[in-house]
Design goal:
Elements (H helix, E strand, L loop, with lengths): L32 E5 L15 E6 L5 E5 L4 E4 L9 E4 L6 H15 L10 H18 L4 H9 L1 H5 L7 H24 L12
Length: about 200
């Protein structure tokens, strides 16, 4: 039953972002891989991913959405545990290179390898700091208060706030967070192309 006065969230808002499994459509996030059964490729190897699947859901149209251990999302017309040859669908679109790179990552998982992360730990932390900074700023917090939360009161008090490098850093984080919230997140969904986002 849907709670009165609340929202029907597709993901539990109480979960940490790293624990939330988001199932994006390939049309929105080209880093989502689409697979089909390769009926015409009799020589193709059977690609069974059941050892690395964390969770599988089925939508109202009968498609399967599988969350792979490394964070990859795979869309297929049947369960990936089925013993059938597979082929990756790569549309001829501007996102061709992203989809090909994602297909290579999926193949590495299938072969038992661990593909490199799309974003470095440092970049993921920066994105998190930027989003928290924007959230605090939108809630009315001052830049100095945000700086204290990020760096500690002693470090903030170590230099005049008006000319502080921390002040400038928090302002850049706030601007970056606003970019991410307004439309920049769409670039993140495009995988490595998100590197084109301005570094703040």
């Amino acid at each position: 039953m849907r709670p009165l006065g609340g929202y029907d969230f597709p993901v539990n808002p109480e979960l940490k972002a790293t624990n939330a499994k988001l199932y994006w459509r390939p049309s929105i996030a080209p880093a989502v891989t689409s697979l089909m059964t390769a009926r015409s490729l009799g020589e193709a190897e059977n690609a069974v991913f059941d050892q690395v699947i964390v969770e599988t859901k089925r939508d109202t149209r009968g498609r399967y959405w599988s969350y792979i251990r490394t964070g990859l999302i795979v869309v297929s017309d049947d369960a990936l545990t089925a013993d059938r040859p597979r082929a990756v669908i790569v549309p001829l679109s501007p996102d061709w290179s992203i989809r090909v790179a994602t297909a290579k990552r999926l193949r590495a998982v299938w072969l038992g390898r661990t593909p490199p992360a799309l974003f470095t730990l440092q970049r993921r932390r920066r994105i998190g700091h930027a989003l928290r900074t924007d959230d605090a700023k939108q809630s009315g917090a001052r830049l100095r208060d945000i700086a204290v939360a990020h760096f500690g009161a002693r470090r903030v008090a170590a230099e005049p706030w008006k000319t502080s490098a921390l002040k400038a850093q928090v302002a850049r984080l706030a601007a970056y967070g606003r970019t991410l919230v307004s439309d920049g997140y769409r670039q993140l969904l495009r995988g490595k192309s998100a590197a084109r986002l301005p570094r703040k």
